[in-house]
Amino acid sequence: MTGKKLIDTILIGMMLLATLATAGVFFYTQYLYEKPLPNPEEERLKMAEEAKTKLFPNSYKLDKLIINLPSRSSRLRFLDIQAYLIPFSSEATESFDKYKANIQDIVIEIASAMEPEELGTISGKILLESRMKKQINALYAKPLVKSVKFTDFVIQ
């Protein structure tokens, strides 16, 4: 210690006070304080709501479109299409309403540039989906569309 009785007594008192305070906090948290138990039903509902918003964002239904397709024969060809946009987050569906006409224009422009024979194959549908997704994301200048799902896809 320092060799001076008064200073040594003050230092010992402060160390004793700090030790007692630490021991008191430990005793209180271990033996006296009871943390309230969570309500399992409440927690389950809260967790289910969080999971729904993260895993299954609301899809955005595009209007049904009938698009003229280029044809080499004299017969007219049409594509009857109904699609859903699957966004990365649920908030994106509101912004789809703002640019609904632009999105429909993108779908018409891309589909009308493809041949009916090409659209009749699985690779053609995948190509149409990827082009739609790429153009719509370019419209917003950030990735909003995770995928495009077709519910009606008829080539006549």
Summarize this, please?
With 156 residues, the protein is an alpha+beta fold.
Q: Which class best fits the helix and strand makeup?
A: alpha+beta
Q: Name the helicity range.
A: 55-70%
The 3D shape can be described as rod-shaped
- Sheet-strand content, in percent, reads 15-25%
**Mean pLDDT across every amino acid position:** 88
Main sheet: strands, sense, barrel: 4 strands, antiparallel
Number of helices: 6
Name the helix and strand elements from N-terminus to C-terminus, one letter apiece: HHEEEHHHHE
CATH class label of the largest domain:
Alpha Beta
Detail the poorly predicted runs. Answer: none
- Specify Rg, calculated over alpha carbons: 33 Å
Question: How many strand segments?
Answer: 4
CATH architecture descriptor name of the largest domain? 2-Layer Sandwich
Please tell me the total number of domains: 2
If you consult CATH, what is the topology of the largest domain?
Tetrahydropterin Synthase, Chain A
The rounded distance between the terminal residues' Cα atoms is: 98 Å
